[in-house]
Amino acid sequence: MRPFLSALPLLALLGLGAAPANAVRANIAIQPVSRMDTPWWRQRFAEKQAEIAHGRFDVVWLGDSITQNWERNGPEAWRDFAPVWQRYYGDRHALNLGFKGDSTCHVLWRLAHGELDFRTPPRLFVVLIGANNFGHVHTDAGQTYPGVVRIVDTIHARFPSSRVLLLGVLPSIRSAWITANTRQLNRALQDDIRRGRPWLHYADVGTAVERDGAPDPSRFLDPHLTPPDPPLHPTATTQEAIARMIEPAVADALADRRH
């Protein structure tokens, strides 16, 4: 099965003839896009570059705010992530490359500008990306899929001996359009992305945020905020459940005991 095609121009869908070539919007999901004009992002990027230059890392988490949240320390239990990270990754030379608000295009820029400049190849990359593609970037599943593909292939091209663990985009409670595209993207990832990629492992961890097959608001931290936001980010307890779900794959990749 071929991966998704980008959305066709409306005229073509209506059978009214092809739109001019310049009317077809470029797929931003596969284009490296910088956020260096955002001060906190630029500072975090510089700090992570320094870590990469001076450290040794066996496990690299790569993604958006869900990954960045691993660095948060409470004070409330629902956002006390750091102890969970320490429990599962504290003795594994792990690095957090999560950036709030990033989509596939921003990760691609980071990978092209130093986030693969490790002194020795990491043994495992854990990739969780795509939720923001359906938000402010607003690319659909068909556009987002090749962005995810480009990320994992870029990692493998640089470090062919490393394993990549790709996590499905987590279900959220934002809009019907986002829910539909999350499901569509995850189906494509499940069905297609591992073909010809024996070094890639895919894991659907969406059940960690669900109850009876639907996202459970109590498993997200966003409703606790003031004012509350739509459920998108797992609580620390939910993220610990995700860590437990992927632990067999992590331990296997590291030839390590299960934590």
TrEMBL record:
Pfam families: Lipase_GDSL_2. Coiled coil: none annotated. Residues 1-23 form the signal peptide. The keyword Hydrolase applies. Residues 62-240 form the SGNH hydrolase-type esterase domain. Residues 212-222 have a biased composition (Basic and acidic residues). InterPro entries: Ester_Hydrolysis_Enzymes (IPR051532), SGNH_hydro (IPR013830), SGNH_hydro_sf (IPR036514). Keywords: Hydrolase, Signal. Residues 212-231 are annotated as: Disordered. GO terms for molecular function: phosphatidylcholine lysophospholipase activity. It comes from the Bacteria. This is Acetylhydrolase.
